[in-house]
Protein: DUF3078 domain-containing protein
Organism: Salegentibacter flavus
Amino acid sequence: MKKIILFLAFFAGIFSLKAQEEVQEEQQEGWTKEGNFALLFNQSAFNDEWTGGGTSNLAGNLLLNYNFNYLRDDITWDNKFILDYGLTKQKTDDFARKTSDRLEFNSIAGKQIKESNWFYSLFLNFRTQITKGYNYDENAETGEIIRTEYTNFLSPAYLQFGPGMLWKKSEDLYVNLSPATGRMILVDSDFTSAPGYVDEDYFGVDAEKSARWELGASISAYAKFGIIENVSMENLLNLYSNYLEDPQNVDIDYTMNMNMKINDYLSTNLIFQAIYDDNAVKGFQIREVFGLGFNYAF
C-alpha cells in the first residue's frame, strides 16, 4: 500500500504542475497525428594500461512514439503506439544483452458528459516485447556465462480492456478509471510445460496453459508538459488490482521520458521505468537510460 500511495502522490504533483500551466485552447476536430523517433547512444572505452577498472562497452536505445487522435463534437479517441528497444555489448561478453524491450499500444475512446472534463470511456492496452529475453548465470568452475531463454515475443503479452470514466483536460493530460477491467496474460506454453513446472510460476500461468484471465480495477494516467525551455517530461502510470486473487497486490507500471532538446535533431534523453508485478518477480523492476540522441519528429 505504501508503494501505491507514493506513486499516486508523485503523479498527483505532476498533474498539479501540468494543470496550473494548462491554457484552454480550441482543439482541432478530426484526426491529428504526430510521432517522434529517437536513437540514443552510450559508449565507454578503456585501453589495456587503464588501472582504474572498467570494461569497454557500447549501448544503443531506439525509441518510437506515434500518436493518432480523433475529436468530433463530444467524441474523443486517443491512440498511442510505443516502441522502446535497447542493447548493450561489453568487450568481454560473447553476446549483446537487452537493456529495454517494450512494444505497447494504448487506446481510449470517450463520450463527453455535457460540457465538462468527464467522459464515459472504453479503453484497451496491449503490451509485449519484441525479441527473446534471457536469464544469465555463471558457471562456478569455468566462469563461463550461461544464458537461458526466459521470455519471447508474446510471452508474456498483456491485454487489458474495459469501460470506465475518463477525466481529460487535453491530449497531454488525462486520467482513466476502470472498475471492471478484464486482463489476459498470454505466454508460450513451452515455458509452462517444462518438467517440474509449478502452477503460476511463469507470470502467474498454470502448468501446460498459455493464458491467464483476470478481472479487476485499473487506473491509467498520462501527463506531458514543459519544465523549462527545450526540456519536456512525459509521464505514464498504470495501476491494476486483480479482484480474483490478492487484490492488495497492485501492479504498478510507471515510465518517465525527459527530453532535453539541443537542436531540431539532437537531444539528451533520460528514461526511467519502475514496474511492480508479483506474478513476474517479488520486487520492483527498475531501469534507467541516459544518453545523447538523434531525434526526428513527424
